[in-house]
Amino acid sequence: MQMRSVSGLVLFVLMAAGAGRAGAAELSERQSLLLANNCLQCHARPGVPAPQIGDAAAWKKVAEKGEAALLANAVQGLGGMPPLGYCSACTEQDFRALIRFMAALPAPAGAVK
Ligand code: HEC
Question: 3-state class of 28 per DSSP?
């Protein structure tokens, strides 16, 4: 019950954050949960040397590497970023969506969620 309401709050915050970002990639509900349960423990935690969600300047620099490089680094790990970001349930599709969402990369036309 406790976990459920926390996830609900995170989802609400994510949807509120997403609403103001016209053109940014969107996540399915499942992917929002994957993000909340796996990525946000570092990417929404000041003090961890990870680009923080919503920090456009930090992600802009990272995004310049391009989606393919970011995908490879997320899967293989990079510095303090653990391989797969601890998300063993994430598919390649999920990683692409999560990376586009966090790095504010545009989704290619016809991309599936
Ligand atoms: C244990 C903490 C931790 C978790 C969990 C985590 N990350 Fe990271 N992530 C980091 C850190 C630290 C960096 C910065 C690495 C560096 O530049 O040395 C990073 C960097 C990244 C980058 C940029 C890579 C690059 O090429 O600069 C991406 C993309 C990323 N994370 C995606 C994710 C996704 C998606 C998830 C969830 C599935 C996730 N991370 C979960 C700590 C984490």
Answer: coil
